[in-house]
Specification:
heterodimer; A: 9 helices; globular; B: 414 residues; 9-stranded mixed β-sheet; 19 strands
């Protein structure tokens, strides 16, 4: 049972405070969505939780199953069970998808020599089929020359292969057409379980039609300013973020 | 520690007149043309001792590390060249130079006057011509039904000793061969020097696919000089992988002598610790309608240093030349250093020549991406580096060999 508990997290980037005593709890088995206008700190939250070196954590905690992720190295956090699907997946020339995921799996094994290539490829191909990714992609360089949709599918493929305890999806819907959105969402939904939590960061309600959240939070200037059920996303879509801004000003 | 060893200057006995006289006497059984070659090279060596410190061909190079002053003597190289794999063929000749000189010295006499790449390592060139006591000779016939593959090991001697190898590769018109050369040390104490000089004569329409893997022990020295003469419509694809030795001087020259020749020269360096890789190349276009392509990629960790100096030279007759030259360097530490000197010298007016060099540090976003998947930092650096040089490794058309090369690179990150 993997619960993510973020408590009073404050984060700076280049001396500017982006997250200001941010708190959030996502229990195992639930999908929470964070929405908010540009610059509200959504991506900072995801990068800070994954320990991106450009983000300075000033204070607070972020516990996954009671283990405080703050202060851990990015690779340790990943192996502790947190997966971040990137908004802009990085291109890594010359490193094939198959070798990349294999290295990530072997990093999780006590004895990397016990890795069984046949089983690995069987699972990889199955998951690629599920996500509609051509098997030839295994030998292509990671994200190199991929379309936006291919990159996002590849992120979900990695997530499925690494079987994390908790997943953060950072604007996974950006750059996706309707068909790709359906496929990617189906991939995410197939991983929903009572043991695994999800934090879905998005600008648009559209994604939440496919990945139906248990809760929706609105982020504003580095804090959660409103929480509700899926209807909150619908309301935001129709009223825009100015509605929240006016309410906060009142 | 390594620096101290290198800077310990002694005068090797092979620089003395007495040593040369004794060497010549011991080789009195050799044919007269060879005795003349050794004698002439010895004299040239002595004449050229006063090298100018401002020689452009040594720019950026810590020349003292690439000299011979830290060797005490010449190794008995009788077992330092070994053919370890060859496909069956009745029409082709291959053997060690020793054996060829004993059985059929005339085969080699045609090459007595051949010059080296002449890109600066004059001392290496003259010393190797004076003292070579091993090497190999390969002559491949033009029977297109026989695609020969040969694999050869060159073994580095023990600390304090140096081996001089001279090799000849002759492809008759329309011959095809794959040649794999491994430069190795038998164990960690094989920290001597290996100077290797090779002439490639590529006949009309012939195809040479050559792979060189240098993985000698830490502390050793490597000098590799090679000269490719390409005749009409011939093709050379040369892939060189440099991983070992404490210091390496590499000179590669492709002479595109006749119309339609194609010279492709690919190399990578995987350097660490205080390794030095000093690479000089020339693509010399002497005839029209030829093409050449050079790609050199270097990955440097810790305090490793690479120097790349490449020249595309196009003579006035070499119209419609198509020549490319690219050097890319990836630095994994603040202390690593890559110097790059791309150059063009074009006398023809209808050519397409491009050259370029880039040096970059490890992309922190790329590294973070790999770390965020749980891959440890050293493994992530290894993966990114392998990805960087995969473009070169991919030129090796043998799956087992490519995996061997990848494993050797990965071992550099442990």
């Amino acid at each position: 049972m993997s619960t993510l508990k973020v408590h009073n997290l404050s984060v700076n980037i280049e001396d500017k405070t982006i997250l200001n005593e941010f708190s959030l709890e996502v229990p195992a088995g639930e999908v929470h969505a964070i929405m908010g206008p540009n610059g509200s700190g959504k991506s900072t939250l995801s990068k800070a939780l994954a320990a991106h070196p450009s983000y300075d954590v000033l204070g607070g905690t972020a516990e996954l199953d009671g283990c405080n992720l703050i202060g851990m190295e990015p690779d340790e956090i990943s192996r502790a069970g947190l997966f971040l699907a990137f908004q802009y997946p990085i291109e890594v020339p010359g490193v094939t998808i198959a070798n990349f995921i294999r290295a990530a799996i072997q990093a999780r094994m006590e004895d990397s020599k016990s890795f069984k290539a046949v089983d690995y490829y069987k699972e990889l191909y199955q998951k690629m089929d599920d996500l509609g990714i051509d098997r030839k992609f295994t030998s292509r360089s990671l994200n190199d020359g991929f379309s936006g949709g291919e990159k996002k599918r590849c992120e979900i493929l990695q997530m499925a292969m690494l079987d994390p305890k908790f997943c953060i999806l950072d604007e996974t819907d950006s750059g996706l057409d309707i068909d790709a959105l359906r496929v990617v969402s189906a991939g995410v939904n197939s991983m929903r379980s009572a043991e695994r939590g999800f934090l879905v960061i998005t600008h648009y309600q559209r994604l939440l039609d496919y990945i139906v959240p248990d809760k929706v939070h609105v982020m504003w200037e580095g804090k959660i300013v409103r929480s509700g059920d899926k209807e909150l996303a619908t309301e935001l879509e129709s009223k825009g973020y100015d509605w929240i801004k006016e309410e906060l000003a009142a | 520690m390594i620096q101290e060893k290198v800077q310990t200057k002694i005068t090797p006995d092979f620089f003395s007149e007495d040593y040369f006289e004794k060497f010549a006497s011991n080789h009195s059984w050799e044919p007269g043309w060879l005795a003349d070659l050794r004698k002439e090279s010895w004299e040239r060596l002595r004449e050229d001792q006063d090298f100018s410190l401002k020689d452009e061909r040594w720019r950026f190079s810590p020349k003292s590390r690439l000299g011979y002053s830290h060797f005490e003597s010449i190794s008995d190289s009788s077992h330092s060249v070994k053919f370890n794999q060859a496909s069956e063929s009745s029409e082709n000749i291959w053997d060690t130079v020793d054996n060829i000189l004993l059985d059929n010295p005339d085969l080699i006499s045609d090459f007595a006057e051949i010059s080296g790449p002449n890109l600066g390592a004059t001392e290496s060139f003259h010393l190797t011509n004076t003292y070579f006591n091993n090497g190999f000779f390969i002559k491949v016939s033009g029977n297109p039904s026989q695609k020969l593959q040969l694999s050869i090991d060159h073994t580095c001697p023990q600390e304090g000793l140096v081996s001089f190898h001279k090799n000849y590769v002759v492809l008759d018109d329309f011959a095809e061969v794959t040649l794999i050369e491994n430069f190795i040390s038998e164990n960690d104490t094989s920290q001597g020097g290996l100077s290797n000089l090779t002439h490639f004569k590529i006949g009309k329409g012939a195809k040479l696919n050559r792979i060189l893997i240098q993985n000698m022990a830490d502390g050793s020295s490597f000098h590799n000089l090679e000269n490719f003469d390409l005749h009409a419509n011939s093709t050379v694809v040369n892939v060189e992988c440099f991983l070992g030795a404490n210091q390496s001087r590499i000179e590669t020259k492709g002479n595109l002598l006749q119309s339609g020749a194609n010279f492709e020269n690919f190399s990578f360096v995987s350097g660490r610790k205080e390794q030095l890789f000093d690479q000089r190349t020339e693509q010399h276009h002497l005839a029209p309608h030829c093409s050449s392509n050079l790609l050199s990629k270097n990955v440097l960790q810790e305090e490793a240093k690479s120097i790349f100096a490449g020249l595309i030279k196009v003579d006035s007759e070499a119209q419609e030349t198509n020549a490319l030259q690219t050097n890319r360097n990836l630095l994994l530490s603040k202390e690593a250093e890559a110097d790059s000197l791309p150059g063009l010298e074009i006398l023809a007016n209808d050519v397409r020549c491009t050259h370029g060099a880039t040096t970059s540090r490890l992309d922190q976003e790329e590294l973070f991406y790999l770390l965020s998947r749980g891959i440890e930092k050293k493994s992530a650096e290894s993966l990114i580096s392998l990805g960087f040089i995969e473009e070169i490794i991919g030129k090796v058309q043998d799956e087992d060999l490519t995996q061997t090369i990848r494993d050797l690179v990965c071992n550099h990150f442990k």
